[in-house]
Amino acid sequence: MNSLASFVFAHSPLCISAEYVLVLAALALAIAAGVERRPAPASRALISPGASAVLKAVCCILVVLHHFALRRPDVAFIKPFAVGAGHFAMPVFFALSAYGVCKSEMARPMPGFAAFFRKRVLSLLKQLWAVNFFAIAAYAAVGAIDGSAESMARSAENPLFFAIASHSLQPWELLMLLVGIRELDSVVWFLYVVIYAYMAFFVSKGVFPIVSRRCAFACLYVGLVALFGVAAWALGLPAYYYRNLWALPLGLLMALCEPWLLGGWRRLCALLCPAGALLLVQCALLREGFYLVSAVAAVAALLGCGRFMACRSVRRGSALAWLSAMSAMVYLVHIKVFDIECHCMGFPTVLLPLAATLALSALYVVASRRKP
What pairs with residue 35 in β-bridges? Predict the structure, then answer.
């Protein structure tokens, strides 16, 4: 199989570059075909539902391209995706998460913890559990079909893939992986951070009512997020646990102060300038100057897309709407598909794992009856 893949795709950097151009062109076409004009809404928003859908669709594809580019450092054309695409997408996702939950709670507050947990947290955990279950089953099946020492050696990128495929884990270890107590791969951290942010939001709104005590509510939320970041840094967790946390308070403040911020660019600058200063300090402390460019681009995309989509919406049932609905699953599934691709043929193409990821994510959306 490996030799066949080498023959068909030739592992050529030129072929990989052409595939990236094709994917980006298809994404641009999906946006052009999926966006339609609508009458001006009665109330303005910094980030409309349509803008959120477009950003989710774009960022989930960028994350896939980012992780594939990390696995093909020999392709010069896609190096910008390896360096910047992930750092661009993650702040966008975090800001949209905080903005969305805050707007939702201000409009229709949930009465208790059970309802909040069921809608915000359990919905994410269900996706994680479903993906982990089928990933563990697929890894074990791959190992049963082709568990030779040579093929296992090619799968060393994810040690847990090797452990599951070689059937060397105990049942209780598999259970920990299934429920998410132990990370199955390097993308699960995102759900952990989002779930913590949801819980920080619930605690903050329980202590200080959002509408009547906005300033105190925001301060407590920011403090809890900062506490998580400091704890993650002190525990020696990877930088992605705390690098993108600044986007959570930003999204929250954009929702809390939205009517005032819509008064003009000067008011927006009053929010963005302190955020930019904090980003500069963070990049200096972490010695990640390269991150600043992606972070600024993420903020520009949030505001720019929000403005562009102010009088536009996403067509129901369009490819763009499907991509948005599948974005969380695409994020969770694609690394598992990469693991299997690595085992079977290396990384000769991005189109095959991307197509498999989109197909599996679409199946989940259909099965969960959440058709866009």
Answer: 314
131: closest CA among 343, 348, 339, 371? 339
C-alpha–C-alpha distance, residues 39 and 312, integer Å: 8
How many CA atoms lie less than 13 Å away from 299 in the CB half-sphere?
21
User: pLDDT tens digits for 280-338?
Assistant: 998 888 888 889 999 999 999 999 999 999 888 999 999 999 999 999 999 999 999 99
Q: Across the strands, what pairs with 313?
A: 36
Name the token pair of 30.
């999906």
Are 218 and 226 in contact by the 8 Å Cβ rule? The answer is no
Mean pLDDT of the chain: 87
Cβ contact 34:321 at 8 Å = yes
User: What is the SS3 assignment for 371?
Assistant: coil
Half-sphere exposure of residue 320: CA atoms within 13 angstroms, side-chain side: 22
Q: What is the pLDDT of residues 80-108, one digit of tens each?
A: 888 889 999 999 999 999 999 999 998 88
pTM for the model: 0.90
The amino acid occupying position 69 is A
Rounded-to-integer distance, Cα 280 and Cα 310, Å: 30
HEC assignment per residue over the chain: CHHHHHHHHCCCHHHHHHHHHHHHHHHHHHHHHHEEECCCCCCCCCCCHHHHHHHHHHHHHHHHHHHHHHHCCCCHHHHHHHHHHHHHHHHHHHHHHHHHHHHHHHHCCCCCHHHHHHHHHHHHHHHHHHHHHHHHHHHHHHHHHCCCHHHHHCCCCCHHHHHHHCCCCCHHHHHHHHHCCCCCCCCCHHHHHHHHHHHHHHHHHHHCCCCCCHHHHHHHHHHHHHHHHHHHHHCCCCHHHCCCCCHHHHHHHHHHCHHHHCCCHHHHHHHHHHHHHHHHHHHHHHCCHHHHHHHHHHHHHHHHHHHHCCCEEECCCCHHHHHHHHHHHHHHHHHHHHHHHHHHHCCCCCHHHHHHHHHHHHHHHHHCCCCC
36 forms bridges with which residues in the sheet? 313
Exposure of 345 in the CB half-sphere (CA atoms within 13 A)? 20
198 alpha carbon, distance to own chain's centre: 15
